[in-house]
Design brief:
Blueprint lengths: L1 H13 L4 H21 L8 H33 L3 H6 L5 H33 L9 H24 L6 H19 L7 H9 L9 H28 L5
Helix pairs in contact: 1-5, 2-3, 2-5, 3-5, 3-6, 3-7, 3-8, 5-6, 6-8, 6-9, 7-8, 8-9
Length: 243
């Protein structure tokens, strides 16, 4: 059942023109960050690490959270048009299958975006004349960034499933990104999805996480994903979806 639902979601996604956004926002992040690095090389002297702090800061704090919100809103947009939710909810498919199919598609898209951003980061470093070898820690930051993005996606889906507007959940996501930055500064980053993204990608602090901190980080992401997913599925099952 999930397989058929995934196929249907993929077909709907092909009609949406979100690929431009998926490509444009990582490019914008790397361009802005690389320009800032190039203009401040006298201060930023840790080469690949310094470049990461610049491109990753714009990406993880602003562009990536917005991109996640756009993906989730786009995957729910067709259902909010022409009362399509009513048709889907009466189909012989479980609500959980509908939700997880959307989540799987979103997770795949975000993984592709992360890989594309990684390639852009490496290309920018070579164009800026950095040494050929970069730190392997970058791979860990990218993977943790993807894991944290799923927690944010669960949050954004909980909004997009019940808010008919395409722009409003994205606006809320942008506000949440600023709130996440504030939570990180206040040393409360482990308790908010967007802050977990900042911690995972190591753009504001590259000292690394202790085993205890890594356990808490993984646990909080898991809790957010499970709780928000259960909430969304129960809401879809027990209440009429706004259509």
């Amino acid at each position: 059942m999930l397989k058929q639902t995934l196929s249907a979601e993929w077909l709907k996604l092909r009609r949406l023109r979100i690929w431009i956004v998926l490509l444009a926002l990582p490019v914008a992040s790397v361009l802005i960050g690389s320009a800032n690095y190039a203009m401040n090389q006298g201060v930023l002297q840790k080469e690949w690490y310094s470049l990461w702090t610049q491109v990753g800061l714009f990406y993880s704090e602003f562009f990536f959270p917005v991109l996640i919100a756009i993906c989730c809103a786009a995957l729910c947009r067709l259902e909010h048009m022409n009362k399509n939710w009513n048709m889907i909810m009466t189909a012989p498919v479980s609500v959980a299958s509908i939700y997880y199919a959307k989540m799987v598609i979103c997770a795949v898209l975000l993984l592709l975006v992360q890989f594309f951003f990684f390639l852009l980061y490496i290309a920018a470093g070579h164009l800026l004349g950095l040494p050929a070898q970069f730190s392997s820690e970058v791979i860990g930051w990218m993977v943790r960034g993807w894991i944290a993005s799923l927690s944010i996606a669960a949050l954004q889906f909980s909004l997009s499933l019940v808010i008919r507007s395409f722009a409003l959940p994205i606006g809320i996501g942008l506000c949440a990104a600023f709130a996440g930055l504030g939570m990180y500064v206040a040393k409360l980053g482990m308790f908010f999805p967007h802050s977990l993204l900042s911690i995972g990608m190591g753009v504001l602090g590259q000292g690394g996480l202790s085993p205890h901190q890594q356990f808490i980080w993984v646990l909080m992401n898991l809790l957010y994903f499970i709780i928000l997913s259960i909430y969304s599925i129960r809401r879809m099952s027990q209440r009429d979806v706004i259509a």
